[in-house]
Fold each of these.
Amino acid sequence: HGGGASSGSERPSARPELLVYATLLRTKKTYLTGAAAVSALPALLLCAVRVDASEDCTRLLVDNWLCVDLPSESERAAALVGEAHALRRGLSRLLRARLPQAGCEA
């Protein structure tokens, strides 16, 4: 038996994770391919359509429905929000530069 089962006595992770996957393969059973665990906060910040933050970044509202409270991590959260914003701007620029080359109109 693998280490995937959790006993009730284990503490939850201090840094929650999300399961991401490349493909959902459906046969008689459903399989996830290319699955990996990623840190939840960076993944949310990179994949969200919209992120609203309190002035001190201790509370984030992701896509107008998911509220993330980070009461003791305002500096870390502010840094992550800034990094995610910069990454998203860079990705957007790259996509805009590439799409016309592929014959797509954006």
Amino acid sequence: DLQKCFPRLFVKAVSSNKIIGLFGQELAMPCTGFPYSQKSMDIKDPIVIIVSHSGGTFGPLACSNLLQSFSSSIFAVTSEWDTQIGKQLRSMYSDDLLSSRIFSTEV
């Protein structure tokens, strides 16, 4: 567990649809039963890992596009290297040291 190994590290698994609901609209959509809000969720320069089997569904793809304004450290785990989200993240910063942002499960 990353939280136990690194107690000062803030690790949270959050649905991409919840992130889009909170930060991707002009008027934040309240999420019933969801413990985070725009005020309680500090996302200043986070390290983001997006997990999507297909790499092309709306939620993760829109979330990766949205979070590019918050962070340059966005990574994806998908079934193939050449997916829609992979293309989007590879085009982000081609000269960056961490230009390989896509991890493939090859399933």
Amino acid sequence: VQAARRENRRKSLEKKLEVANDNRMHILSEVQGKMSKMNAKLDIAKQNVETLELVKKVEGLETYNTKLENAAINREECLNKKKEKAAKGSKRASIISMQEKKLAS
């Protein structure tokens, strides 16, 4: 009788242990699934951050290029004004030298 009780008790404990292991495996599987989803979201977030950083770099480069273009335009305008001024100066000089030649003759 005691041997039968011990056997029943052993079987009962084995069954409980099996159920506990099944529950543990089920919970572990759920946690792994959630971790996979979280890792996927983390990867997407990292990609978004990298994309934003690239966008900022591109915007910065575009701003820098715009400033360079504006500086080149301003430089060109300044050079053109200096050329016009020099041309006017040489016209005056040639007019004066022509007047001097007329006076000399």
Amino acid sequence: RTQFASPDLWKLAMKQPVVGKAKKKKNQTTNIFGETIGRLHLERQDIDNRSGKKSKALRLAEKIEKAEENAAVESELGREKEEMSNEFKQAYGFAPDNM
């Protein structure tokens, strides 16, 4: 062009946007390999109430333990029933039919 714009129009046309510094991201760094490394902040997790997949051995052990507990309860009930039957026999002189 042979003719330039007026100084205020020239100044407006040549104006470039101001680019500020990029905002620094907290708890985030880049190592020498270019990988981004950061720290995440999470709530404390309650691991006591979380359920995970149990191994077969644990399930089998739990099943055996439950069976032993049931057997112990049954033997205790049988013993109590026998004791009550003996008490009944002593008190009334005959064995109960359906107790």
